[in-house]
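Z., the sequence and structure:
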Amino acid sequence: MARPEKLLRILETIDGRGYGAYRDIAGRFDFGEFILFIDHVQADPFAAPSRVRVNLPAGIAALPPELYADAAGRVAVADFLARRAAEALHRHGRGIRGSGSSGLIRIDGPGQEILEHTAVTLRPGGIVDARFFVGLPAKNRRVLARVCRSMIESELVAVLEEALLYRNLDADALAAHVAAYRTQEALRARLPAHGLVAFVGDGARLPRRSGVDDRPLEDDRVVPFRAPPEHRVVLTLDDGRRFAGMGIPAGITLIVGGGFHGKSTLLRAIERGIYNHVPGDGRELVVTDPTAVRVRAEDGRSVAEVDISAFIRNLPCGHDTTAFSTELASGSTSQAAGLLEALAAGARVLVLDEDTSATNFLIRDHRMQRVVPAACEPITPLLDRARELHGRLGVSILLVLGGSGDYFDVADTVIHMNTFRPEDATARAREAAAALPTGRTSEAPPLGADLFPPRRLLPATFADPSALRGEARLKARGTRTILLGKHALDLSALEPLVHPAQVTALAEGLRLARDHFADGHRTVEEVVALVMQRLDEEGLDALTRRPSGGLARFRGLELAAAINRLRSLRIAR
């Protein structure tokens, strides 16, 4: 590949000078077979790395057009290339050389899910755009020009040749990657026609290595999933391929069983089925309604002007629950607020696990009803609302239970996990409910006409001058926190956030909402819809002022949840 003499001359000129001299290399450099963009130069070797972009023309990358002919193919191909680039950097990169992050070249490598990501994107016609984070090398804050030249001419070029040129890729692996993504998209699209909210294919391997390692557990004792006969369905795609597995029907579904028998493992796999997974993950045939949301108790979260009266009313001291606000929610009030916020944002499948739920939000049994009169209990448990939510709103509920059989009275489907094998227990549950009546009575008053009164997002939400001001003051920390100025936004309850790049993008989505859409007249949901429309029309680059390789797609449901958890949130009704 050709060397751009202009860049080399600049590097020779600034060698040994103060670190600020690196600003001279910002710009565009044509290497002939690719174009190098140095979009942002870090101010200091200890600052966040510089942002570098590479464009490969379609004729050089030479990717087969049939692989990226549709949106699904473009996402899958870009994801595959990003993975190969990350692997190549591991082999060719020499790591830190000098002060701070000097000598580091990094690309934002994907995880087990195939996400729309800016690390690598496919431009119209097959142009490959790859984005790297580069620690421009220095020693004692002095430019190391020869090291920088080697990083570009040797390491970066080697990565481009090995990971982004079709002739050097494993063509079969790339085709399989794209095919897996398209298959999962097609299976998910088949769910509504079969009356399903989720599908778990036969042969799926669901257990993960650990709570912090999402790769598949490689153990001979792992039990491949197999659907029970009562819930076995076959999904047929347009090309005639047929996939058998367990269908989770719309309605109220319970997953029951003893401890450590696989209930939560199944639930977590279904929850992650909103995403497509890489070949070999074990969950490639697990697909879920894309609006599914995990709802859990969040002690201590803030709530702003949410009507939780469907579940909580008549609080002591006359606290109004039709416009409930608190800086320190309890388990039950936080779960009620989270459920209703999710429904208002468009969720139509609610996923709950009793281990992460407030007990008094889920159930109030007959004995407790006898001891604590209804007049003294402000909480209407989900048990008394589940059928109404499904009948009136079409909301499906998927609930893991191990300790309460009262839900047998309202369940449509009961799945018993027995040593990681699913069995249909619906008939047994109904027999138990008939033979052992609970004696309890529903205490739910009728639902109001409008469960989701409009909540207008006020600009005062973003009034703190330290919040959302400039990139240096906005930072994602893993998949659980956004730092907004001096404040930390806790996202630990948002299970669908699986990659730090999603959190970075979510933070930028908050900034976009503030700068363009939160005018004091639009509701939270309207603001979210406009942000997502902008992303649909312009892509993830609409989120930032200059190109970044560290963004990944999130759902509007997560953006709404993030807004609702801002402690500075201000709402008008």
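The chain has three domains: 5-169, 292-435, 456-572. The CA atoms of residues 58 and 127 lie 5 Å apart.

Let me know what you think.
H.
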